[in-house]
């Protein structure tokens, strides 16, 4: 980043100070959450179903959750970055339905961390495509 770009960013930060993506309080860097909101995110890093990533409460000899054992999904393996709960719900809904595309970079970093547990040499990350009607309403996948 050249001097002019850094200076422009500092000026922009003075005019529009960076805000927490979740609660809107002041943060050091744009596109991040504040420490309080970070603590509320429940990162899914423990034992989980080898296929769908459903979190287990404890380490188990079973590799698959009940649902995957009964009917294996069409995909091989999947992971989520955080539990969908009070700590993440507002951000996810704002991203999906509130035009908050500024969450994309933050979420992609969380997903990349979650995908590391898959130990795959290559991976495909793909959105679940929306139906044309819903895509027209939401405007992005
Ligand atoms: Zn916050
Ligand atoms: Zn499963």
Which characteristics define this entry?
about 140 residues, mainly alpha, 2 domains, 6 helices, about 35% helix, binds zinc ion
Describe the protein:
This protein is mainly alpha-helical and 141 residues long. It folds into two domains: 1-31, no CATH class; 32-138, no CATH class. It is built from six helices and no strands. It has helices at residues 3-15, 35-40, 66-70, 89-97, 104-115, 132-138. The model has no long low-confidence stretch (mean pLDDT 85). Bound molecules: zinc ion (ZN) (2 copies). Residues 20, 22-23, 25, 33-34, 36-37 line the site of one zinc ion.
Strand content: under 5%
Percent helix range? 25-40%
Cα distance, first to last residue? 30 Å
Mean pLDDT: 85
What structural class is derived from the secondary structure elements?
mainly alpha
- Report the biggest beta sheet as strand number plus sense, adding barrel if it closes: none
Poorly predicted ranges: none
* Topology, number of strands: 0
Bound molecules: zinc ion
Give the count of structural domains.
2
Q: What is the CA-based Rg, rounded?
A: 18 Å
Shape call: globular
Order of helices and strands: HHHHHH
Topology (elements, then pairings):
Elements: H1 3-15, H2 35-40, H3 66-70, H4 89-97, H5 104-115, H6 132-138
One zinc ion binds next to α3.
Could you write a compact summary of the structure shown?
The chain is mainly α.
